Amino acid sequence: MKLKKCMALGMTVVTICSLLAGCTGDGETKTETESVAASGSTEAAGESGDLSEYFHTKDHYTLKVMAMGDADTQILEEVSAALSEITEEKLNCDVELTRIGFASYMTQLNLILSSGDALDLFIPMADPSEYVQTGQIQPITDLVERFAPNLCSSLEERDWMSMIYDGDIYGMPVNGEKGQILGFGMRKDICDELGIDYENFQSMDDLHDALVKVKEAHPDMYPVVSNAGDMFGGSTPYIGQDSCGDSNNLAVLEDPFDENGKIVSFFETDLFKETCERMYQWSQEGLIMPDASTNTDSCNTLVAAGKAFGYFQHMTPGWEIEATQNNGGIETVAWKYGVPTYIGGRSGWFVPTASGDPERAVAFFDLMYSDPTVANLVINGIEGKNYVFVDKENGVITFPEGKDATTNGYSRLEWAWPNERLSYTVEGLETNWEESDQFTESTQVPVCFGFKFDSTSVMNQITACLNVYEKYVPALLCGSLNPDETIPILNEEMEKAGIQDIVKEKQAQFDAWKAESSEN
Amino acid sequence: MVEKSRKTQIIFHFIMIILCIFCLFPFLLLIVSSFTDEHVLIQEGYSIIPRAFSVAAYEYIFANSATIFRAYGTTIGVTVVGTVLNIALTILFAYPLSRRDLPHRNIWSFIVFFTMLFNGGLVPSYIMWTQYFHIRNTYAALIVPSLMMGAFYVIMMRTNLAQNIPEEVLEAARIDGASEWQILFKVVMPMALPIIATLMLLVGMAYWNDWMNGLYYLTQKKYYTIQVLLNNMLQDLQVLLSSSFSANVDMSSMPSTSIKMAIAVVGALPVLCIYPFFQRYFVKGITIGAVKG
């Protein structure tokens, strides 16, 4: 057991070193990366020949792959067949693709993983730490270099960091947007009508003044709405802190970019207090929808129905185009604030421990990552059935006549697949990857990026704290509760639930991690 | 029965009427909102009198009839087959148990009781059904896991049979030369009709409303029942929001409120139509044992 661990550690060091050698710092000029990529691809071509030979010496296999999103059974069979045609030659295997809608994805995945059912490759919907802790996914440190050459040659060292647990690589990161920023999205027509200069907001006070104007001019419209009960986008209210190693937002770093930052209880931070106070004030002034914390409609639905002016959300480059589409064609603009933050490679693909052939699983990921035909098959489905070309040369597609994103039979979730950059783009929603790269370069990397919190020893405290969280925090962030009265109660209950144990444990692990990474 | 005073009658009627309103009001709201215009629904909220009448939600259902009617058909098929099989198994188990001359009767009873109180839990059941019975992505996935889970029904029927079918009747049948099968089909079953109808109603409802089996054992959409479909529609948004991908997904592609309501109406309608016909047996089946006691 010990020996195995030592060997694994050794392999990690070797891999990381080789990765480091492959990618010099991102400050270096682009031409160099391009030449590396170019040489990488010729090498890869040679290697993939070897790989194909290697796999043909082994038994034929059926690779089971699972991903999010709805898809018609018949279309899935067709996509699987088309994939198998390609993999038959390259990897000597068939591919069986399963896609499951969001509602049952987590249940199904957990059942498959905990029962040790046959599955070779999947993307998780939640933080994968739990799967690592329970041994349901396997380390692939010594597989990636040989079986995923294209992935290795295109990744920066920091992209791997989020996939390493206890010194082993467990996942393969997807290639998509790698940064995000906080923002407030709003209707452009109303901004224009009231002369709101959203591009030059300096602070929340400017936003506040604008919202007051909206309220006066359109009393029937809520200036700020929540997204189905969440004010700041998603269940992790990322208001500037970093949850640091997990996604619970209990013990956090108040300033993600402070080298000497200490782990603290989120609810004792000034950031939390100020945010709650501001929201409460806004809510008292009638700027926030009255039942924000119990609202079950999405913010997009509310804007599209003419009921809302704006909402908070995490944003990536090109957010406005997507938001306009999501809001039923009502042109949407955004005021972006806060620090552009590097989040890259947070979601990845993993190989379950029960997989019968991890080598082929890794190799198939590499194929989805590097082969445009495969990437487009898995992302967009079948041409003529799920999409049609508008402009074949530039790879612009649209949905077949009479179909839309929900009825085309193969839901398009490009960000959940290994490499969305290879995908055709949907007409009107073209992603500008240059802009995205520039944005990524402007982002700052949080100091705890790559740190993983092992929560096993404080599991009970976390459960207790999350119960307290559910009771007060969403309502506080929606401005429905008076922070002067509620925050002390919240903190008292959090103390009783044992939040300090979590803070201490996380601080200890964080210190150990920092010491270890500074050694390397 | 003693004639109740007028006053008590009025009070009880009053309470019942209130309870009735509590039950009917949400249902009425459901039906009305399914006929209300989506934008109005979001702008004005729910109301008992539709502010803007619209059949858009039902048009959507008919436009997507391929998916929805397929699911509907699956639900009906699964309910009919599942109920018949379940009742057959229940009778075949409960009737021998109700007979005092069954060898090792206590052991059989123990098996039923024990499994009613303790079960294997989700993951072991999942392993058993998927890896040994291979029911994943088959129609059996919707029927089989619920088949023998009804230990409660077995006990209910056993008690009912033991109390309502006197030993003498069986003896008489035997003297007339009836075989065990003839006794079961010609004597016991006609006498047990009320309890059979009651159980059919309970089991049928359970199959009709079941979405858990679909959630666990189905990954292919073509096997979805109407309840699985509805549950997925309702849960998609919630599950998504609690995941780390909420910022990535186009939430507006999720089905709108009025469509959810319309599917709920369509899913509940047949039960509403069938229920009154079974109701008289229902009351009889539950009370008959006690009354004759």
UniProtKB/TrEMBL annotation, chain B:
The keyword GTP-binding does not apply. It holds the Pfam family BPD_transp_1. CDD domains: TM_PBP2 (cd06261). Coiled coil: none annotated. GO terms for biological process: transmembrane transport. One of its GO terms (cellular component) is plasma membrane. Keywords: Cell membrane, Membrane, Transmembrane, Transmembrane helix, Transport. It is found in: Cell membrane. Residues 72-278 form the ABC transmembrane type-1 domain. It is a multi-pass membrane protein. The chain crosses the membrane at residues 12-32, 71-95, 107-127, 139-156, 183-208, 259-278. Belongs to the binding-protein-dependent transport system permease family. This is Putative aldouronate transport system permease protein.
